[in-house]
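Re: the multi-chain job from yesterday

Posting the exact lines I submitted so nobody has to dig through the queue logs.
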Amino acid sequence: MRWVGRPLPRYEDPVLLRGRGRYTADLAQSARILRFVRSPLARGNILAVSSPPDVPIITPAVLGDVKPICPRLDRPDYVPVAQPILADERVTYVGEPIAAVIAGTAAEAEDLAEQVTIEIEAETPVVTLDQALAPGAPLVHDIAPRNTLIDARFETPGIAAALAAAHQLIEFTFTSGRQSAVPLEARTAVAAFDAATGRVTLSASTQMPHLLRTGIADVLGIAESELRVIAPEVGGGFGQKMALIPEYVVAVWAARHFACTVAWIEDRLENLTASFHARDQRVHLRGAFDADGSLLAIDADIQCNVGAYSNFPATCGVEPLMALADMPGPYRVPEYRARARGVASNTCPMAPYRGVSRPVITAAVERLMDCAAARLGLDVLAIRRRNLTADFPHTSVTGVVQDAGSYREAMEAAARVVDFAEFRARQQTARADGRWLGLGISVFAERTGPGSPAFAARRMVITPGFERVELAMDPSGFLEARIGSSPHGQGLKTSLAQLIADEIGVVPSAIRVVAGDTDRSPYGWGTFASRSLVIAGGACKLAAATLRERLQTVASQILEAAASDIEISDGRAFVRGTDLGVEVCQLARTAYHQSHRFPAIAETGLSAVATYDPYGTFSNACHIAVVEVDVATGQVTIERFVVVEDAGRLINPMIVDGQVHGGVAQGIANALYEQVVYDDGGNILTGSLADYLVPTMAEIPEIEIHHLETLTEASITGAKGVGEGGTIGAPAAVLNAVSDALAPFGVGIFEMPITPQRILQLLRKAGCTASSSVAPLAGRGSG
Amino acid sequence: MRSKPFTLSCARATFYDRDMSDKYDITFTVNGDKRTIRVEPRRSLADALREDCGLTGTHLGCEHGVCGACTVLIDDQPVRSCLMFAVQAEGTRVRTVEGLAIGDKLHPLQQAFWDHHGLQCGFCTPGFLMLAVGILERRPDIAEPELREALSSNLCRCTGYQNILKSVLAAAAEMRK
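And the result, structure tokens for all chains:
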């Protein structure tokens, strides 16, 4: 029986459904509670921090020689800035931790924190990109002139000529608002000191336990072996939990210093204000086209507001550098020039967030395609057909190698599903009734499962990439796969069990996947960048193949046949073409308990270790959104959302669809709803989930998914990554759809989120005051 | 700037001294068991369930009544347990996710969430399960648009709600049998 390709219900689920899953806060029962005192101001000098005599506080002086967090890139266009664990002389954003208190309960800790007095000499903060980049702007860090932490450039020799020769030059600035990843479980840590060993076990809601161990050990100046990091059940991460944070450092420090168990449970206000943010980018784009719609050149100025500090280990270069390298996406771009900057401001620092820059660059480039189509009188499919890459492997203008994909096929399939002609007819009829429907398309190629070459190209000093798997069969024939990846809701354990089961010939229920514990798992990089199924999955396949050979060796001796004649299937090893066989559990018992009979596997026994570090593979998809815009209220309703996804071989189609669903929902949120809003003083106005609008079931439409399966050689399992695609493609589809709906009013959308208020502003600016008084341009069908 | 010398010791008493007299006994039924716990008046029901009753299946996602991860049933009504004081639960009948399954047999909603991939990280799941139980017990024939509206009380960040809706519809059909 084959297990890959089946929608196997997840092994992860029963414990979670029964309410028995142990998330980090569930482990805090006997812990003392750590509470941070945070800066109420965005910028200024700290004059004094004080508290009543009976309220002891942890301050930078108390922390002593704990080092700051200093993420590094090995490149001259990057300025490394050091983030103190607790703000010492200056505060640089609202919510920055300044001091900490410890109490018996969370309520008591809050009471204590309120008794801490902070005196700050306030200064006017730089909050926006414009403020930070203005000539003479105050510097967030003295060592970073023009508030620029990274300033990367790329240029092909023929760019100027291509721009000059263009038949059409389309130019606009596209802006994405600032988002928060909002995992439903906020960040949490329980640090427990063990008096017997002197070690601390840190349970933390993290996507990268090994990197956390490395980072904390480095700033505390201890050996990594003094620290064990466990990621128990993790209630979502989406990138926000793939960085080292000062709060975890203080928790471990306090556990060691006071020889006790300390817990920090972030509340939602802290999470929305002082956990990492994302996006807050703008792309000034110029696209040169010839008369038949061929894209000749892209010229992009990418600006990312990265907040007050860089994140460890990805650095604040993660968004601008990915945007710079991956801007061409699925298209052939002969000439390309880009400048990508990460700009510091007195706002919450940024971490990677699902999609990493590609939701923004995809939206910008897809808007470019629609604008060019309109200008040239082409339909939106025709212009894409002309420019989509069709020959693979394709080396992009920036040198990125894109493996086999189905860029055009996915688009054609999506167009067939939606039936453009039928929609255009319906759109015309609706317009006559004063209803404004729109259709938007988004085509993208998405780098997934990048190995160390991809990160090395970015020149990360800490270069992620490989994954290692240790696979072992116990004497009862059960398998344990210990992985360095750290899943947190993706169902990875089930998917990997399916892969291993097929490779060896056992049932997946006989496989336990162990992850998220630095004492139990090999060093690995965690779960991010749509990498775990591709890379940990590849390592699992390699290790399983080796272990199968070892089982065949044992079986061949027991069954007195050639190893090459041994087949293993459904938990039984047998001589091919005969009924002579032995159960794998019996085989395992014999291998352990009569090991003297099997010198060939004396060194390894029934275990295998494998490492996989691929270049990376590109998933691709086409999203189509059909929307209706109420021009009286600005309300956008998504009528239909179609995804044609190519993630290579589907290991567990049910899990793949779930990843796409969740990704699309977050992309729709980016397009229509979510925005972190700061006032001029750098105060966050969206500090609750009543203000920061995570969409509910009422806002997210049915998401219709179709699959193509291009079997790439770039991934040894054939599987491509699928964690981020939904988030990358959805904003462009929605924005193109809203633009299509509002085309009769001469309104195009170049920003997100496109809220009802913004739509009404744009309509007013275009001279339209209400639906009854609008005089739309002549009917136009762009597709 | 430097703060005063640090003298915090590890003895619990030095962290914070609190007047124990302002705690109250409350008695209520939790998942069928009658329990008496002693709590401060300011203690939320969610904290009381998690910390005083050891029922950590009820999760806290926002503590301001928006996300619904902490939803439990009080006398069969879905309630945000982060917005209710424990003392207000005096004399009530509380049901949490831990009380849904009977031995090895999952509640039809739990089974449907499993079958239809209605959860990913699982953090919002107990709240959605209790919300859905509350809805379906009162309105077993609830139509999809109304169900969608009712389930929009709670937030999920992983599933895009697709399979939550599918799971609840499947469970509703099963429960009507």
